[in-house]
User: Fold Phenylacetate-CoA oxygenase subunit PaaC from Alcaligenes faecalis.
Amino acid sequence: MDKALFSYALRMGDSTLVLAQRLGEWTGHGPALEEELACANTALDLLGQARMWLTLAGETEGQGRDEDRLAYHRDVHEYTNYLLVERENGHYGDTLARQFLFDAWHCFLLEQLIESSDEQIREIAQKAHKEVLYHLRRSTDLIVRLGDGTPESHKRMQKAIDDAWFYLGELFLDDEVTEELAQRQAVPLMASLWQPCLEYIQNALERATLRCPAEQDAQHKAYRGGPQGRHTEALGFLLAEMQHLPRMYPDATW
Assistant:
């Protein structure tokens, strides 16, 4: 088994799956019908990407676990998603801040994965990039509109960015998985994405009249541990809801 490829595919699959679940929680609770639909569509895009990554993980593992088995029959400590995506939705500004920061990283990453030496990674990236490019344009536009909106929306967006910022740095940390795959030119080093991503974020926040938090607060004070299976309690509650029916009826088929 290619352990590095399995771990990376699982990490990406878990991250997109958990974020899709979080966005799906807004269904029926959105601040406006247009936003509720846009949020649901983004969730569906991410769910489709999660299926591709988890399918790759299952095939690489070779133990008969498909994407459903990986999604619904693992416990919290077996999940390897980044901590940013498991954060609770909070108010809509909190959700947008989380989405904007993730989208920026995700888009720059997929641009590099399109050139991957691994054919399966390359195919997933090619399918996902167009979707994520739209996600980034949408979340950037909303950040600008709300940041440069009323005094209340400006204040809320600034706090939302500040609160999410400490989780950003984990996305750019390398470990033995990314280092091995980078040597094979299958994925980029995560650290190499930091400067272009930071420049994009800074430019967007400047347009939004928002203050960009200090770089070292993301890089050196970052919360970390998600890819190693160390999570916040928020993920446990999310998985309990998401996995309830498959765990109750493990042999059920549609």
Observations:
- Residues 3-248 form a domain with the Ferritin fold (CATH 1.20.1260.10).
- The mean pLDDT is 94.
